[in-house]
Design a protein that fits this description.
Blueprint lengths: L2 H25 L4 H11 L11 H22 L2 H6 L1 H25 L4 H12 L3 H10 L6 H33 L3 H39 L3 H23 L3 H13 L4 H25 L3 H6 L1 H25 L4 H11 L4 H12 L5 H23 L1 H9 L2 H8 L19 E4 L3 H12 L4 E5 L2 H9 L4 E3 L5 H6 L7 E4 L4 H14 L4 E6 L2 H10 L3 E4 H16 L4 H13 L8
Parallel strand pairs: 1-2, 1-4, 2-3, 4-5, 5-6
Helix pairs in contact: 1-2, 1-12, 2-12, 2-17, 3-10, 3-11, 3-12, 5-6, 5-8, 5-14, 6-16, 6-17, 7-8, 8-9, 8-15, 8-16, 9-10, 9-11, 10-11, 14-15, 14-17, 16-17, 23-24, 25-26
């Protein structure tokens, strides 16, 4: 068959198999990535029947890697990272180190060298951001304090992995040649110098040239040309980075995305690149599955169980321990631990690079792919355990406080403070909590703040605000806040599971308290009202009601009629959108 025919066959088989397997995975409520990997196994050379060309699939996968890294760069935000830097940066670094050490130990047990163990450990240390985001969205936990901490943690892991990819060729050369310490430093220094020169060039030149170029293309008014321009930037910079600076295609794509992400056109660029990115990313996962030999898995069950134990148990326990040592609430540790209990796209990228450079044996690659396939499949069940484990620990405050270190002095009121009565307890010091506090201050009403960011609590105390640090679902913390004497409890932070426990507990110790809670869905509102909340506020619904009020007034409707209609809108669910 001619080369063109092989290319078409590979794309057709890959996308068709991925579509069918991905659809089955979704029906089984599993991540689509599981289906894509299984599709790759089905059309791979190790499975009887029709199979695609593995070499062509890997070349297509390179485009998928470039577009994946370009998308990561576009969505990379220093601002989001800085918001959770206290937990994300030290946590990700320590956890990656622990996983790498465990990987070296596993490689030693399997008879591989230290270099292979380091690459294996690094591959197993980094979780899939795609899988984490989907899990958090399904649980409505993306905008919670715990969800943001988990996402920030994985952002640091992604950036760290990019750095590893830069240094991996130099590391492979050193591992293969047995170079002296001086040569090791020289080789690694050269790699860092090239990567640094590329980064400086992108910041100094690319930050001016790329946005200017995209603006000029956008002014032409051609959707086709803008999409072509975005792809040319992503692929062109990735290729030039590799050809000129000798760094990985992934790093060049990431820097290109980071530059585009700083422009006003970032959202449009991401949206235009999304369809092609998704298509080639699917082919990337399919190509990974094609390398998986089912016979190897059947012959080495103990090695696979060891990898799963490292990924699902070892990484999770390490994350929970690190979060506890950093002094953050236990629920944050449980959420981060569940999010890290899987590996995905970056693991494949690292493992592929390791095999290509001769550092990692193909058997290790088989373990990485198998570990990803099984851990991603199990991840929804791991996340489902967060709430039961958290509830079990809530019923045992002694164990919980020892694990959390009880928040130290920030979990108790200031010594000179007299017990409040008839005050408000505000849970969460985001934009909503600050606005409620300003309203209370305008009328001279007292309040206590419960917040899960230690630095925020320290800052509030310096300003003279009564603030307590810890999980809002901690009964002891609510007692310190004087919940039994409070008049109003305000859940300004969005954390439905914690709010349900705190509402029920607060209602039991103070039957007369008024409780208002922030929700995102009618189902959450119903659960909180059933547990004793007085009022719930649904963000999008309140926004719609305010806009409806404004619109009706412009039509001359009286204020009384407007208020009556507004109350009706709050009670009735909005019509479902047309499909």
């Amino acid at each position: 068959m001619e080369h063109g025919g092989e290319l078409i066959t590979t794309i057709a088989l890959g996308l068709s198999a991925a579509f069918l397997a991905g659809l089955v995975a979704r029906r089984l409520r599993l991540p689509s990535i599981v289906g894509y990997l299984v599709a790759g196994v089905a059309i791979g050379p190790f499975t009887p029947g029709v199979f695609a060309d593995q070499g062509i699939a890997m070349e297509l996968a390179e485009i998928g890697v470039i577009l994946l890294m370009f998308g990561v760069g576009i969505h990379f935000s220093f601002r989001d990272l800085l918001a959770v830097r206290g937990i994300a940066i030290p946590g990700a670094i320590v956890q990656s180190t622990v996983a790498t050490i465990l990987g070296v130990g596993l490689a030693a047990m399997l008879g591989w060298g230290i270099a292979a163990g380091i690459v294996l450990g690094l591959s197993l240390s980094v979780a899939s951001t795609v899988v984490l985001l989907r899990a958090l969205i399904q649980r409505n936990a993306l905008d919670t304090v715990h969800g943001r901490a988990a996402v920030g943690w994985l952002i640091v892991e992604d950036v760290f992995t990019v750095l590893v990819l830069v240094l991996l060729p130099a590391f492979a050369a050193v591992a293969a040649g047995g170079a002296s310490g001086q040569n090791v430093a020289l080789t690694l220094g050269e790699a860092m110098l090239k990567a640094g020169a590329l980064a400086v060039l992108m910041v100094v030149v690319g930050k001016r040239v790329v946005p200017w170029l995209l603006v000029q293309v956008a002014r032409e008014g051609s959707q086709e040309m803008f999409t072509l321009g975005v792809l040319a930037v992503a692929l062109g910079i990735a290729f030039a980075s590799s050809a000129v600076f000798g760094v990985s295609l992934a790093l060049g794509a990431f820097l290109a995305g980071a530059v585009v992400g700083e422009t006003d056109l970032s959202h449009k660029a991401a949206a235009d690149a999304l369809p092609l990115r998704d298509a080639f990313a699917v082919l990337f996962f399919v190509s990974v599955g094609m390398l998986l030999d089912p016979a190897y898995l059947l012959q080495n069950p103990l090695a696979i169980l060891a990898v799963l134990a490292l990924v699902v148990v070892g990484k999770s326990l390490a994350a929970i321990g690190i979060v506890a040592l950093l002094g953050y609430p236990l629920r944050t540790g449980l959420t981060v631990g569940a999010g890290l209990a899987q590996i995905g796209e970056f693991s494949f990228i690292l493992a592929t690079a390791g095999v290509g450079l001769g550092v990692l044996p193909i058997e290790a690659y088989q373990l990485v792919v198998a570990g990803a396939l099984i851990s991603i499949t199990l991840n929804p069940f791991v996340f489902a355990m967060v709430d039961p484990v958290d509830a079990w620990l809530k019923a045992r405050p002694g164990i919980r406080h020892r694990l959390e270190r009880a928040g130290g002095p920030l979990a108790r009121p200031a010594p000179a403070h007299q017990p409040m009565r008839g005050h408000a307890v505000i849970c969460g010091w985001g934009r909503v909590g600050r606005t409620v506090a300003r309203a209370l201050e305008a009328r001279g009403f007292a309040y206590v703040v419960i917040e899960e960011h230690r630095r925020t609590v320290e800052s509030l105390r310096e300003q003279g605000v009564q603030a307590l640090y810890g999980d809002i679902a901690d009964a002891e913390l609510l007692r310190h806040a004087g919940i039994e004497r409070a008049r109003v409890l305000v859940f300004a932070a969005y954390d439905p599971p914690a709010a349900e426990f705190a509402v029920e507990h607060s209602r039991s110790v103070n039957p007369r308290i008024e409780i208002v809670a922030r929700v995102e869905t009618p189902e959450e509102a119903r659960r909180l009202l059933d547990r004793g909340a007085t009022q719930t506020v649904e963000g999008e619904r309140e926004l719609a009601v305010q806009m409806a009020r404004y619109t009706l007034r412009r039509f001359g409707v009286t204020s009384r009629e407007v208020e009556a209609i507004a109350q009706g809108l709050r009670r009735r669910p909005e019509p479902a959108p047309a499909v």
